[in-house]
Design brief:
Helices cover 0% and strands 26% of the residues. The protein is mainly beta and 50 residues long. It binds zinc ion (ZN) (2 copies).
Amino acid sequence: MCSESYDLGEPNGECPECGEPTVDGKAASGCECSPETCPTCHATPCDESC
Ligand SMILES: [Zn+2]
Ligand SMILES: [Zn+2]
């Protein structure tokens, strides 16, 4: 878990595009510094470079 990460809370769904847990259609957690973003849920998985 890095310093730029965020967490929206308890997931209530899953993105059909990337499989990330989602809260109301948005990625439940991720990293602000991620270079990649899922177009569907805006998931930003940390690439460990931060
Ligand atoms: Zn997604
Ligand atoms: Zn990160």
